[in-house]
Amino acid sequence: MKILHILTDSNTGGAGILLENLLRYTELPKEEIAVILPRGAAMLPRYEALGIRCLPLLTRKDRSFAPADLPRLTACLRREKPDIVHTHAALGGRIAAFAARVPIRIATRHCAYPDTAPAAAVRHALNRLGDAVLTHTTIATAEAAAENLRALGIPARKITRIPNGARALRRLSDPEKRDLRLQLGLREGDFVVGLAARLSPVKGHSTLLDAAEILLSQHTGYRFLLVGGGPEEAAIRKRIAAPPLCGQVLMVGEVTDVAPYVNLFDVALSCSTGTETSSLALSEAMSLGIPCIASDFGGNPEMVRPGENGLLFPAGNAPALAACIERIRTDRALYASLSAGAIARYRRAGRAENMAAAYDRLYRTLYAEKMTARRSGAEKKHVTRT
Fold first, then answer.
1. N or C: which end of the chain has fewer CB within 10 A?
2. What are 310's strand-pairing partners?
């Protein structure tokens, strides 16, 4: 069973990290797996370090559909002759797989989008047509994504729900934590509010900064730590250079290993106002027993259960977010309970090993069904001829 993944992301986004987790923990032979991705993609060396053959063919980075790449993609698939093509945010990959007559075509929907734009009807029709022709199964990474797909006209029978799974982060020793806190200028007793996410508008950094201003105007002892890079970096740096955020909000930029910084979080946030399904950043924080506060958008309510492993707030509502942060900081009994709940939730539903096993089962099931159908078709042809 030969599997070929197609990823269009050039950065270290959620789709690329999810694929890394899948490749790391799959029990299928890695020599039978390959990845097509953009030239110069950040994830390429990480996949190769896992023993995965990479094909850096795409010239149009971060584009789900790039007509200029279609001939190259189709030719590659015809040469490779995979049994399964699994695309990640790659409509062009699905078209190429169809053109190359790949037997099994899978797409993962990594995001959930509000269906309010005037183009919703057009998108609905295109997704229905595309799914009927191009894809055998669409994977939803959360129920919110599945609902989004059904709203776009994709039949429920063609949707498989497999939540994202994250690797447990390495826990730093106390001396390591102390050294890193000193490097960052964190004071003894600072309550660190952390957000590890790409710096893009839908990740809600503006909501966090608004909440930070509210908290800093009323309380002392708060520090805010932002991990990640992206298009909003310059605007965020400009805002936090002025009072009252100056010196209280720290940015470390995009890093290859988030674990050291997440270890410093007292609480982890997801402030998304769009796209979020099952957040890898939240699962990673939970693996360390860090309580989480999340907006009520998309798949966040599936991951964060109020009073169990964290708190929820209405997306975009900075005063509500500030109140949640202050509640967790001041109620130590609640904090201890949420910390234990975070670890329990990660072990139950957030592990990358469980996610990879679910993908492996899906691949094997679809492959077995296709082989059975082929044998049945061959037998019918033989009977007809005789």
1. C
2. 292, 306
Longest dimension (CA), the chain: 87
What would the two tokens of residue 286 be? Answer: 């939970």
Bridge partner list, 281: none
b/e map 123-162, b = 16+ CB within 10 Å: eeeebeebbeebbbbbbbbbbbbbbbbeebbbeeeebbeb
Count of all residues that appear for the chain in the document? 386
Tell me which fold the domain 174-350 belongs to.
Answer: Rossmann fold (3.40.50)
Structural tokens at position 341: 């709940």
- Residue 99: Cβ-neighbour burial (10 angstroms; 0-12, 13-18, 19+): middle
In angstroms, rounded to a whole number, what is the distance separating the alpha carbons of residues 337 and 349? 18
> 265 with 180: CB under 8 angstroms?
no
Say whether pTM exceeds 0.85.
Answer: yes
Collapsing DSSP to helix, strand or coil, 73 comes out as helix
Share of the chain above pLDDT 70, in %: 92
| Secondary structure letter of residue 259 according to DSSP | H
Q: In Å, how far are 22, 154, 308, 373, 375 from 103, measured between CA atoms?
A: 21, 20, 44, 11, 14
Domain ranges in the chain are 3-165+352-383, 174-350
- What is the rounded distance in angstroms from the CA atom of residue 290 to the CA atom of residue 313? 17
Read off the DSSP letter of residue 200: S
Which CATH architecture group holds 3-165+352-383?
Answer: 3-Layer(aba) Sandwich (3.40)
Q: How confident is the model at residue 380 (pLDDT cuts 50, 70, 90)?
A: low
Averaged pLDDT score across all residues of the chain: 92
Residues 35, 15: contact at Cβ < 8 Å? no
Helical pair 91-99 and 70-80, crossing angle rounded to 10 deg: 50
